[in-house]
Design brief:
554 residues; GMP Synthetase, Chain A, domain 3; globular; 19 helices; alpha/beta; 5-stranded mixed β-sheet
């Protein structure tokens, strides 16, 4: 009996219980909320909003305000300094860090209790993977995450990437499946980290690749041809190249784990000679699954994943942020997942009402399929009616429970002339245009240029994959972008027809510039596995990160 079979038998009762709860999501949500309120009723936040007097969901909504991070920053700062019983009765053991609307990062508390709730959800998520892909456990999982340890708070509590903390906290039976030790993600040098990932994973039988951003997988694959000879020799000799800047404290434990493997080295050499280059679909023939985000702009990179991995199954990571994991994907090929109703309490603000002072805040039984909402969470870690500033779309229902997919960050909207363009509009327009013209791109961003000569317009920065298309194809591509935006956003159509907004431009950036930009951001502290460049921005200085080779207009 293999690990997958054992896991399925152990976790099947939990999955059945979860699926039963989707028949009555309000009951499940009420149970979760009341548990968290009872647990934390005597905290400073609980006393302020009289958690002990709350009996219904309506009581909670009437008494506790919807907040964004800056409203709770003073509470979290005190927790970071060591004060107890502020947002939770439980002592923080870790703070997940993520970017905020100010220059200061957001710190999201994790306690032993909240970690246990996250782990229950992780096991449930894992059940559906093991059910559909039992062969995954016959090999190794290549998971690429961001480093857990970025620093310590004044009271000595570690903070860093939630993905890194989760990686280190995995139970031993699961951790043994992972090909990379956590030390790898402590390597600061961009190329050194990627080389080490490839060196260790290409010597193994990898059956599953998992990371949040599919662009990370594409970048990793692009580096194989550059280093393949050096990697083969390292595998043959049981070494780790000295050509890369890897700190001794990381290098030594990795080198101690390495063994000579001339058989595997010969396999890779023969594949390289036969095919001219090494591709994952050839040297990982038992690959069963790629796990990554699939929604929005991420769809662009999924096309390239097929080039490297062939017709492999892809499963979305779910609506996952430092603050909360909000959905459980239960099948492949879709960005949609079931709302995780047994783990957090959720509310939804209709996207079109978000700017209104008294916008409706809906429980999960009041949402409608096909509509988009800002998601508000209450968690075991001390977040109460917290607006993550994520927009999700309700794609349907499992029994009576919504299925959702991530659409974009709420802050990802611009308006030069009243058009209120969202990242989702840009993402859909790009995906449609790329599909129509058979193009592949490395990077794309729409920049709102209010001071452009002749009037405001959008400039679309693009780095093409491979050779830059000829002039007529670039112009046709830009024309399709314009046509798609007019179709997708009625307000954009109005301002363009009213001549309030000028025709867009296509700015082709130099090959390799996006990777260089990404490397700089990672070197300055951005989380490698979660790094995501803006798809839409009003920051006209953003394009200074790139060299513009040519500009095409309509």
């Amino acid at each position: 009996m293999n690990l997958a079979t054992i896991s399925l038998k152990l976790l099947e009762p939990k999955s059945r219980a979860f699926e039963r709860s989707t028949m009555d999501p309000v009951r499940a949500q009420t149970k979760v909320l009341m548990e968290y309120l009872r647990r934390n009723k005597d905290t400073e936040y609980g006393r302020k909003y009289r958690f002990s007097e709350i009996r219904t969901l309506s009581d909670y909504q009437a008494r506790v305000p919807v907040v964004e991070y800056e409203a709770i920053r003073p509470y979290v700062d005190r927790m970071a300094k060591g004060e107890q019983n502020i947002l939770t009765r439980d002592r923080p053991i870790f703070f997940g860090s993520t970017s905020g609307t100010t220059n200061l990062p957001k710190l999201i508390p994790t306690t032993n209790y909240s970690e246990s709730k996250k782990m229950e959800l992780l096991w449930l998520w894992s059940y559906y993977i093991a059910r559909d892909h039992p062969d995954v456990v016959n090999g190794k999982v290549l998971a690429i995450i961001s480093p857990e340890d970025e620093g310590k708070t004044p009271s000595g509590i570690r903070y860093g990437a939630e993905s890194g903390h989760g990686y280190k906290s995995l139970p031993w039976p699961v951790k043994r499946l992972y090909v990379l030790p956590p030390k790898v993600f402590e390597i600061k040098d961009y190329d050194a980290r990627y080389y080490t990932i490839l060196r260790l994973s290409m010597g193994a039988n990898v059956t599953d690749v998992a990371t949040l951003n599919p662009n990370t997988i594409v970048l990793l694959c692009q580096k194989i041809s550059k280093w393949q000879d050096r990697i083969i020799e390292d595998i043959r000799n049981g070494t780790l190249s000295r050509d890369f800047d890897i700190p001794d404290g990381v290098r030594r434990p990795i080198e101690r784990s390495l063994r000579r493997d001339p058989v595997r080295a010969n396999e890779l050499s023969m594949l390289a000679a036969k095919n001219g280059k090494l591709l994952p679909k050839d040297f990982w023939p038992n690959m069963r699954l790629v796990e990554c985000w699939m929604g929005g702009m991420m769809r662009l990179y999924l096309k390239e994943i097929e080039d490297y991995f062939g017709k492999v199954s892809i499963r979305d990571m779910g609506c996952l942020s430092t603050e909360a994991r909000s959905s459980i994907p239960i099948g492949d090929g879709s960005a949609s997942g079931v709302l995780a109703i047994d783990t957090n309490f959720y509310e939804f603000i209709p996207k079109e009402d978000a700017a209104r002072k008294n916008a409706a805040v809906l429980t999960c039984d009041k949402v409608e399929a096909g509509k988009e909402y800002f998601i508000v969470v209450t968690t075991a870690g001390g977040l109460y009616r917290y607006n993550i500033d994520d927009i999700v779309k309700v794609t349907g229902f499992m029994n009576k429970t919504p299925m959702i997919e991530f659409v974009q960050k709420g802050s990802g909207a611009t308006s030069l002339a009243g058009e209120k363009l969202y990242e989702s509009h840009v993402s859909d327009a790009v995906n449609l245009a790329v599909e129509k013209h058979g193009l592949k791109i490395e990077f794309f961003c729409a920049v709102a240029e209010s001071g452009a000569a002749g009037g405001p317009r959008y400039a679309f920065l693009v780095e093409f994959s491979g050779d830059t298309p000829p002039a007529d194809k670039k112009k046709a591509f830009l024309g399709s972008l314009e046509e798609n935006l007019r179709s997708l956003d009625s307000e954009y159509l109005f301002v363009r027809n009213a001549q309030l907004l000028k025709a867009p431009a296509l700015k082709v950036i130099r090959a390799g510039d996006f990777e260089r930009y990404r490397a700089r951001k990672v070197a300055h502290g951005a989380h490698d596995g979660q790094f995501k460049a803006p798809e839409l921005t009003s920051d006209t200085n953003f394009e200074k990160n790139f060299f513009i080779e040519e500009i095409t207009g309509l």
